[in-house]
Design brief:
This protein is α+β, with helices and mostly antiparallel strands. The chain is built from three helices and five strands, in the order H-H-E-E-E-E-E-H. It has a five-stranded antiparallel beta sheet with strand order 1-2-3-4-5. Helix 2 crosses helix 3. It starts with 8 loop residues before the first helix and ends with a helix. The relative contact order is 0.16.
Amino acid sequence: MKRARLASAPLIEAWFDMLAGDARPHARRLRQLVQAAVPELGLSIKWGNLLFVLPDGRHALALAAQKAHLNLQCFSGHALQERFPMLDGNGKGLRSLKCRHSQPLDEALVTALTLACVQAVRDDAAAGAEADASD
């Protein structure tokens, strides 16, 4: 698998600086929570979003800024819909947790979702490898 290109610390800080003032505290706290839950996640900027990347280059989560909220996006979120019914989205992959700037973060939920999302990404990769091996 192609490795994701990790972003430099100044580029990551520039991403936070471009956010609206009321979004910054939530965005910084979300980053802290995600990286505390899974410390091996690296950071990258792609599509204007802050990506959390596994060491093998797979995208696990992303922060996407909106006017009144941040979306914590889970790349294998489709597998988590039953356990986390508050996730938005449909289709075959991405699901998002909407974190409104005006409301406190549910830190326990963010941590649990981060752990589950990373495991789902790993499970999807393992299932893909098994399917390739059986071909």
